[in-house]
Design goal:
The protein has 251 residues and is of the alpha/beta class. Helix content is 42%, strand content 16%. The protein has an 8-stranded parallel barrel, surrounded by 5 helices. It binds phosphoenolpyruvate.
Length: 251
């Protein structure tokens, strides 16, 4: 059985005070929930304070990015060891906004995933096609390219710690959610790729989240799909109320 995982990607929102306020509200409203793994991914500056606020709760901490080198003269970058020391268990890697605005390639995503795993962080690896790709009938080609090359060289043991987030770029922050059938079709395809790359056990075990305009109104039908194991939530994770409703919509 794959445990449902709902992660909130706060992107470049929330000062430290705002982060604490949000997570304090959230922790009270999800206090009794065990059946869903809950992760929040604040900006780097809020990680330590959010960690303090969620100590001894059912909420886990994730970062939104990392760098692959251990340390060095890489101004502005944050290493996986630093994230670990700030209390992170997860790290989002290869988000489409990083691919689109900061030129991240599959090769970079792969290096980051390996670095995260080396430090004992669990990578949430994002994959997904743009609108033009989908219109041109290239969805599966793009997703295959992202999955195969982002995960290249990862062992079976590594894969047990990886979460894949299928995030069609046309659905992120647009209010246009993929239909449950569109999501399930790609999730099933990714599971098939994992079977080819590894084996049936890995394919059955790896959790695949859907991301792209997930809201309280659409989570129930998405999560009901066989191969949808959770969600990576942007906008709707910025309010405790909507994020809580999404989490509760998975129960
Ligand atoms: C995201 O940031 O990964 C995301 C899916 O954003 P939104 O939920 O706002 O579409």
């Amino acid at each position: 059985m794959r445990r449902v995982i709902i992660a909130g990607n706060w992107k470049m929102y929330k000062t430290i005070d705002e982060s604490i306020e949000l997570v304090n509200l959230l922790k009270r409203s999800v206090v009794d929930i065990d059946d869903v793994e809950i992760v929040v991914c604040p900006p780097f500056t809020s990680l330590s304070d959010v960690r303090e606020s969620i100590m001894d709760t059912n909420i886990k901490l994730g970062a939104q990015d990392c760098y692959w080198e251990k340390e060095g003269a890489f101004t502005g970058e944050v290493s996986c060891a630093m994230l670990k020391s700030a209390g992170c268990e997860y790290v989002i890697i290869g988000h489409s906004e990083r691919r689109q605005f900061f030129g991240e390639t599959n090769e970079m995503v792969n290096k980051k995933a390996k670095a995260a795993l080396r430090e004992g962080l669990k990578p949430i690896v994002c994959v997904g096609e743009k609108l033009d790709d989908r219109r041109a009938g290239k969805t599966f080609d793009v997703v295959k390219d992202h999955v195969v090359n982002s995960l290249s060289g990862l062992t079976r043991e590594d894969m047990m710690k990886v979460v894949i987030a299928y995030e069609p770029v046309w659905a992120i922050g647009t209010g246009v959610v993929a239909t449950k059938d569109q999501a399930e079709e790609v999730h099933k395809y990714i599971r098939g790729l994992l079977k080819d790359m590894y084996d049936a056990n890995i394919a059955d075990s790896v959790r695949i989240q859907y991301g792209g305009s997930v809201k309280p109104e659409n989570i129930r039908e998405l999560i009901a799909e066989e191969d949808v194991d959770g969600a990576l939530v942007g906008g709707a994770s910025l309010k405790a109320d909507s994020f809580t409703q999404i989490i509760k919509g998975c129960l």
